[in-house]
Structure formats: C-alpha cells, structure tokens
C-alpha cells in the first residue's frame, strides 16, 4: 500500500486493528483529534509511535486538556527529541508550575 503512494484515511480504532499491515516508512502521518494521544501508555499511542514516520502532525483544538504530562506526550509524539524524558520534564517544568498554581 505505502509503496504505491496512496492516501490512507483511517480511524484510531481501525488503526489499532490494522497497524501491523502498515509496513515501510510513512512520509507524513497526520492525526486529527491529537489530544487522544495524551498517554504514552495507551495502546493507540503505542501503535502510532511504533510506525516509522518521517514527519508527524497532530491536529487538536485542546492541546492542554488536563495536565502537562498530556502535553508532553503529544509533543514527544510529534518531535521525540524536543523535550527531555517525562521524569525530567516533570521535575523541571510540571512540578514548579503545579506548586505555583497551588500557592
């Protein structure tokens, strides 16, 4: 499929079921409702992260729904080397922001 240069539009549910058929390198992966990838441990996020992609784009109207961990997950999916590992991100950014909000 991918070698033919075709366009594939697929739902997250269908992707989870058929991700193993998407072999090869994907030039561009565009994910609508990108906030659905807010947990690095979720099966959808794991499947999408495992795909070999040259470029990834997330579309969402709500990048910060609940907390900064979700924001980290979305940014790390799009650009894996942009932010430090989650534990470091939490120590440097999340905890100080949370403390300031509680003050």
Automatic annotation (TrEMBL):
PROSITE patterns: HELICASE_ATP_BIND_1 (PS51192). It comes from the Eukaryota. GO terms for biological process: double-strand break repair via homologous recombination; reciprocal meiotic recombination. Pfam families: SNF2-rel_dom (PF00176). GO terms for cellular component: nucleus. Residues 1-81 form the Helicase ATP-binding domain. One of its GO terms (molecular function) is DNA translocase activity. This is Helicase ATP-binding domain-containing protein. It comes from Alexandrium catenella.
